[in-house]
Amino acid sequence: MELPRILSQVIFVLAATILLGSDKVDGRRHSHREWDYFEYCAISCRAHTASLADFGGVGDGTTSNTRAFQTAVDHLSQFESDGGSMLFVPPGKWLTGSFNLTSHFTLFLHQDAVLLASQDENEWAVIEPLPSYGRGRDTEGGRYISLIFGTNLTDVIITGDNGTIDGQGETWWNKFHKGELSYTRPYLIEIMYSENVQISNLTLVNSPSWNVHPVYCSNVIVQGLTILAPVTSPNTDGINPDSCTNTRIEDCYIVSGDDCIAVKSGWDQYGISFAMPTKRLVIRRLTCISPFSAVIALGSEMSGGIEDVRAEEILAIDSESGIRIKTAVGRGGYVKDIYVRGMTMKTMKWAFWMTGNYGSHPDNNYDPNALPLISNINYRDMVAENVTMAAKLEGISGDPFTGICISNVTIELAKKPKKVIWNCTDVEGVSSGVVPLPCSQLPEVSAECNFPAESLPIDNVEIQTCSYYRRKYSSSDNDHVLKHL
């Protein structure tokens, strides 16, 4: 750190100490001069801060704060090249429509702050479909912009002291079920074409659709999220890294109506043409409940490719499947170099599921000769209990899934399991120390499945401890945007 920066920090701390001391009278501190101070962890600390209340925000749960959020971000964007900025969302219920973020910026939610997503469709702009998808996921054409959105950003952080973002998704779910949607439902958080992204220490509830969607991004850290949705809610995926490179997902708890983690990279001919894979992805210390979907799904939109995924220390409870690969004729692309270890599964329909017959397509213009490549899939060191069926592994005729390896896995079956415990077609691989004994397509060998020893670059990204100082309440003398360490 440069000497001027150190001196400025020391001077600020001394000034804050003097101000704090001067606010005391007879050992008491005037409430209008009280200060907020807390520490938080982030990839970058900020030199400038402001509160949403400074921009007319009203946390009563009924007043729209869309303009306040966007005005605040627009104002703070002037500090992008001067140490960056943080927008603090204080306690309250802050109703808002979509707003865009800026670079070198942190959005921080107090533990008692709740962002309430507006149910007024006029608060949601309609944007173009993703180029790697060619259309919206719910309908043809465009899609509603996400609640918190950013594109072409560098160094953006969405974090808090476990503050809450409530998507109020029931209205959207009902419209989806009734076929009343004009455009694809919004997500809670979507960051596009960006680098150095952190999303952490928040509670996300009742998203209209996907919760967290980094797409076309690099160097992404998602950690410490609690994601909750009714298990029957449609498409409420937890975290969907999509055509991203160098991503780390860790220490998250997810209850979902769809896949807890869904790894994606574009849909059929659009994903093939866009040609941006998801690669170098780490997933660790995840707890998931998803009775009708997967804990970790690879696909089904995987046409740009998925490679070098490493997952470990995963707890699956009452979920349809532990690891699922979803693809189809027409997808093209590949899923390769997948490594999963240290997974515990409790009450599952399938421990492992692969399918080459997940046949949804964006339109009829896909190439029926575009066959996906599924290879080098490694599962090891797992235990499962109360499982209805050990595995359903279905490749594609003439295009088998190859290089499957399952080792040191013990599966305790349910009291009334399926008659066929392992169902394997058009797959090739090996097994070692697996109970019950796998299908003949996975013959027993004496070797363990692979898990890379070297770390990925995203594991070397350091998280800093940052500090925030600010007066809690406004006064007429000098209560403006302050600098903090």
How would the blueprint of this fold be written?
Elements: H1 3-22, E1 24-25, E2 28-29, E3 35-42, E4 48-51, E5 60-64, H2 66-76, E6 85-89, E7 92-96, E8 99-100, E9 105-109, E10 113-117, E11 126-127, E12 143-144, E13 148-151, E14 154-160, E15 163-166, H3 170-178, E16 189-192, E17 195-200, E18 202-205, E19 212-215, E20 218-223, E21 226-228, E22 245-255, E23 261-263, H4 268-274, E24 278-289, E25 294-298, E26 306-326, E27 334-355, E28 373-394, E29 401-413, E30 422-425, E31 427-435, E32 464-471
Parallel strand pairs: 4-6, 5-7, 6-9, 7-10, 8-13, 9-14, 10-15, 13-16, 14-17, 15-18, 16-19, 17-20, 18-21, 20-22, 21-22, 22-24, 23-25, 24-26, 25-26, 26-27, 27-28, 28-29, 28-30, 29-31
Antiparallel strand pairs: 1-2, 3-32, 11-12
User: Major sheet: size, sense and barrel closure?
Assistant: 22 strands, parallel
Overall residue-averaged pLDDT value:
91
* Range of helix content: under 10%
CA-based shape: globular
Beta-strand share of residues: over 45%
Question: Structural class of the secondary structure composition?
Answer: mainly beta
Q: From the alpha-carbon coordinates, what is the Rg to the nearest angstrom? A: 24 Å
N- to C-terminal distance: 12 Å
Low-confidence stretches: 1-33, 473-485
Total of helices? 4
Q: Write down how many β-strands occur, each being a DSSP E stretch of 2 or more residues.
A: 32
